[in-house]
Fold this protein.
Amino acid sequence: MTASGKVKLKPGDTIGILGGGQLGRMLAMAAARLGLKCQVFSPDPDSPAFDVVLNATCAEYADVEALELFASDVDVITYEFENVPASAALVLSVACSTVRALGITITAGD
């Protein structure tokens, strides 16, 4: 993360996306055009975003082990929709150095 609080990603870095709907699908497709990889976490096995990423995690947001494994595979995490439980965000903020939601950066220790 830079001094301004912005995350600088380089080609090959991985964006973790919480939620696998149409917005997640579009985000993953746009990221791929920039040379970025995406991994999607969603409890819905029929998530549209699963079709356009190499790695996907199908687990409940209450599954701490799955969240921690997901966080260990990505460089930054963002939200595809607003209904991700706060408890999942807390787990991820500890497991991943940067979680971004709606323009707000949550880092471990905040």
Notes: The two ends are 15 Å apart (CA to CA). The domain at 14-106 is CATH 3.40.50.20 (Rossmann fold).
